Amino acid sequence: MSVRLRFAPSPTGFLHVGNVRTALVNFLFARQQGGIFMLRFDDTDPERSTDAFADAIEEDLRWLGLKWNTSSHQSHRQDAYDDAIARLKESGRLYPCWDTPQELELRRKVLLSRGKPPVYERGALALTQAQKDGYAAQGRAPHWRFRLNQRPVTWQDGVRGEVTFDTATLSDPVLVREDGSLLYTLPSCVDDLDHHVTHVFRGEDHVTNTAVQVELFEALGGAPPQFAHFALLTGAGGEGLSKRAGSLAIRDLRGQGLEPMAINSLLARIGTSDPIEPFTDLAPLVYGFDVTKFGRSAARFDPHELEVLNARIVHQLHYANVAARIPGVSEELWEAVRPNLTRVSDALDWLKVAEGPMQPVIEDAEFLRQAAELLPPLPWGEEAWGEWTGAVKQATGRKGRALFHPLRLALTGREQGPEMKLLLPLIGPKRTRERLIST
Ligand code: GLU
After folding, report:
1. Measured in whole angstroms, how far is the alpha carbon of residue 156 from the centre of its chain?
2. What are the tens digits of pLDDT across the range 52-78?
3. 188 lines ligand 1 (CB under 6 A)
């Protein structure tokens, strides 16, 4: 059977680097195995989920090149959840509770003060039919909890090895709220079963959920998928990444001119034993993917590392793949400036340098005037710079920095930049002359 994986964001915010790492890990494995990668919107919370966020998530995934084979929305699958709820009630695994938040909070405090874990004590299971009828007569709707088996649950985790988690340490989770709305757990398991999900790769913040979900899969008559929980990403300073951490939203990184493959290259390998390399397409990440290479300790996401990777990727990009993003930049100019760029759009700055308008920086007007007299005959190719500076050297006795620096400053207005032998022909004789004798 071919593998089926899903990326299951809640459309309650923009994708950030943490989500994309999860998406990538699932995508890469699905592709490597020739399986299916699903996009599943966990949108059962009508207050916080929006179509605009769902659209934005799709747009970001497309921009990253993480194509999904199929997609679904939990908000369209209520019938399947109702059916599962009915079955769980039937088997006695879902039971009604009328505890108020205040009552629950009080019990929690009492248990803690006695040094006990604040686990729900299942008072609702002891209610008589008359008491239940009484609540109904008052018009009070129950919320519904899943009765855990209170036993150790064990699974083979792709990253963590054998994991055992005792559900006796957990409160029976609420699956359905008073108003009938669903929390994350039930729809997630029903979907994973109905969609025949074979592997769930996600952050280790879900380990506790997994123990509950293994029980729920079984209560629904299905087998759990295989799990792998990787250590979370933290910010460069070790702080947690949150969905609302604006600067790490994918669309902000895109707005900053970063390449999608810089983001993919970093996020596919961060926290693994594989080296982080600047890849220009996803193929090597697909071939090389191995979930067992994820380490157990949190990986730090450093925006500076992303910048460095971005530059190394830009240095490999072919003109045909970037031309549309840098109108006016010729292939010659791209080739000349590419090794000096950190972002593709920086090429536009060099277009201004080549074609103007730009402000020459004049260090020594007399020297520059003299150099202007010695410009080599046309046409100018790559050899023109060498010929010219050779002649200027001979005529003025200058050499090294004293020779080259004033020329570069006058012609480009900058201290550093691409090789002058490539830039000079692009600046051309007219502008070169004007810049040299601009005072
Ligand atoms: N919507 C859940 C989340 O974003 C999905 C978790 C899962 O992979 O099951 O955390």
Report:
1. 26
2. 999 999 999 999 999 999 999 999 999
3. yes
Average pLDDT over the chain, rounded to an integer: 95
Candidate of 7, 27, 42, 233 to mutate for ligand 1, largest count of ligand atoms within 8 Å of Cβ: 42
* Nearest alpha carbon, ligand 1 atom 10: 9
Tens digit of each residue's pLDDT (9 = 90 or more) over 289-313? 999 999 999 899 999 999 999 999 9
pTM of the model: 0.92
Residue 213 Cα: closest atom of ligand 1:
9
**3-class DSSP assignment, residue 175:** strand
192 lines ligand 1 (CB under 6 A): no
**Cβ proximity of 435 and 411 under 8 Å:** yes
Residue 182, in any domain of the structure = no
pLDDT category of residue 413 using cuts at 50, 70 and 90: very high
Residue 8 alpha carbon to ligand 1 centre in Å: 5
Structural domain boundaries, residue 372: 355-436
Q: Where are the alpha helices (DSSP H) in 66-184?
A: 78-90, 101-113, 129-137
DSSP line for 296-326: SSPEE--HHHHHHHHHHHHTT--HHHHGGGS
Q: How far away, in angstroms, is 234 Cα from ligand 1 center?
A: 18
> Is 376 a member of any domain?
yes
Q: What is the CATH number of the domain that holds 361?
A: 1.10.10.350
The Å distance, Cα 221 to ligand 1 centre, comes to: 22
Spacing, Cα 25 to ligand 1 middle (Å): 14
Residues 6+ apart with CB under 8 A from 66: 7, 20, 23, 24, 27, 37, 264
The closest-lying atom of ligand 1 relative to the alpha carbon of residue 7 is: 8
Is 373 inside a domain boundary? yes
Q: How many structural domains is the chain composed of?
A: 1
At 438, is the pLDDT very low, low, confident or very high (cuts 50, 70, 90)? confident
Regarding the beta carbon of 9 and ligand 1, being less than 6 Å apart is answered yes
- Residue 101 within any structural domain of the chain: no
How many angstroms separate the CA atoms of 371 and 373, rounded? 5
Share of the chain above pLDDT 90, in %: 92
